Amino acid sequence: MKNPEIFVVMILYMCVVIGIGVYFYKRAQKNSENYFLGGRSLGPWVAAMSAEASDMSGWLLMGLPGVAYWCGLADAFWTAVGLAIGTYVNWLIVAKRLRHYSQIAGNSITIPDFFSNRFKEKRKIVLGISAIFILIFFTVYASSCFVTVGKLFSTLFEFDYHITLIVGAVFVVAYTLIGGFLAESVSDFMQAIVMILALVVMIVVGVVNAGGFGAVIDNVKNFDGFLSLFKIASPTTDANGVQQALGGVPLFGEAGDYGFLKILSMLAWGLGYFGVPQVLLRFMAIRKSSEIRRSRIIATVWCVISLAAAVMIGIIGRTLLPTSEALNTASNAENILIVLSTEYLPLIVAGLIMAGILAATISSSDSYLLIASSSVSVNIFNGIIKKGKATDKQVMWLSRIVLVIIAVIGVIMAWKEDNIIFNLVSFAWAGFGATFGPIMLFSLFWKRTTRAGAIAGMITGGVSVFIWKLVLNKFLSATLPIFGLYELLPAFILSSIAIVVVSLLTKKKLDNEILDEFERAKRGEVDEIVSEKANG
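Below the sequence we write its predicted structure tokens.
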């Protein structure tokens, strides 16, 4: 086996992660609120860093550096800027209001629960629609994590991609069944620390081995458009997508234009934060809303440093490994951190970094599986079929069954070895951002929002992502550049319009209970309740 020392370090690291799950097992199995929301007990550090780690995971450590390595600075830079702004604004305006409102609105423990309780549904249409979209897009998210595991092990140890894909999925399912939300949040906190350390260490080592930061810049500026924020580098490839080289130098064609629409597309990544359940659930689970300001600072600083480091690793990689066969396609380029670590770090240190990638990916995928399975067991089964009368035992058993089914579908979606993590994540991110982002904002801040408006907004946003990505972008973007926009932006706008228009056309007189809860959430009355419980 190739790199046995790294394999041993990774196994030991994963034992620690398993230990976290075992430690929280009894607490997680106590009831469904503990299993799915950790009993609303997250402190500011765990809430902030677990939110970011569960969001970024393998995408940060492989997808983003891969984009920077393959086509230069522009795509990766503007995406990172959009995400950094989105992180800050989401913590600033959504976190505290959602923490209040989710508890006031029937002590909601999932995002579909919150929407349904917010509009006092009797016929659970909002609940059902939101649960279905969560199931769809989190299955795509889970598949991206499985791709990361497959690539990691096939690159490091020359194991068969498909075998490691299956083994990784089995491990994720087993870990999720054990620990639930709290174990996943605590392990994500640990992964966040490992991830940022891994990125920073690799930058320092990479710059030193390249002969300094100036040497890195001097090297890559010879590739047309590679360092431009308004051009995008175009690797010269053969019919199979393999980059061509001459005399040890990678070949690039004329750089493409990176205009206003493209920049707008990448900045639009920040809109996704308003709708991604894995982040929103941390807002609902934080211990006290008074701690959210500290969480916001922690999350934003972590996000900025990590995103900048990930982009720089891709740039440094082009200097140190300009024509590596392990990085010669857009898909293979996502292995840049793995290849750099094994080439330039002591094996034990490289093993820790690789373990960090694996553990971050697994802890993120278990978050996705947990939320997706809860959408079926809590929202569809208990909320719609059983009308709230299912026992905790029934809910948790069904959740486990659904979790396994979702994992199997995710493995099938990840089966192609040339899957690109960045593309899978971008589609799922757009789906969540457009389906749930607008209705989350309107639900929290516009009391005139109606149930019909919520339904119209979610359906419009979710369906628009599919139509824009699979039809308009694919067939019309070459002739009409507007259709080249990242699907999140137009779908987000269309969803917002649908919410406003339909809300204004329906239910002129709003329910008094809904209005009362809206005002209570606005005033933050739930803080007093939490304080009484904490002091009791």
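The beta strands are 231-235, 245-246, 249-250, 252-257.
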